Amino acid sequence: MSKGYDVWFQDPNAMVKTLLGNPDFHKHFNHVPYHEFEPTGQHCWENFMSGNWAWHHVDILAKDPAMHDAMLMPIILGSDKTTVSVATGQNDYYPLYLSIGNVHNNTHRAHHNSVVLLAFLAIPKTDHDSEDTAEFWKF
């Protein structure tokens, strides 16, 4: 377990700032949580900010006077394994993606640069002899 691994990453603050400045999100961005209802009274769950989680956390922020005029901006992270075989010897990596919950779902699905690559994490490989060692699990 003395092999070194590279972890490539970008500044998450810069990535969020880039997302906030994206002109594609104009009119497709929620600054505050909301509830939307069908004419029958059925609650519509369409975007992240229409959910109960956003309402609950805004209520928590509202209790602190220092947080008045603040905007809730949920950070959403996701990852999925990918295999890179060219010149790497079949290494597995997990790209770590970042998005913000304020962007409408239809904008996410339309690929308007609403998800950015935050990091590229290496996944260690081991043989059966060292897979149960504390050193491997600590990594």
Describe this structure in words.
Helices cover 22% and strands 22% of the residues. It contains 4 helices and 7 strands. The strands form 2 sheets. Strands 1, 4, 5, 6 and 7 form a 5-stranded antiparallel beta sheet that branches. A hairpin with a 6-residue loop joins strand 5 and strand 6. It is elongated and about 60 Å long. The termini are close together.
Layout of strands and helices, then pairs:
Elements: E1 8-9, H1 12-20, E2 36-37, E3 43-44, H2 52-62, E4 75-79, E5 82-84, E6 91-100, H3 105-109, E7 116-122, H4 134-138
Antiparallel strand pairs: 1-7, 2-3, 4-6, 5-6, 6-7
List keywords for this structure.
alpha+beta; two-stranded antiparallel ribbon
* Count of alpha and pi helical runs: 4
Radius of gyration: 20 Å
Mean pLDDT: 84
Uncertain residue segments: none
Q: What kind of assembly state do the chains in view correspond to? A: single chain
The helix/strand order is EHEEHEEEHEH
Overall SS class: alpha+beta
Shape: elongated
Percent of residues in β-strands: 15-25%
Distance between the termini: 9 Å
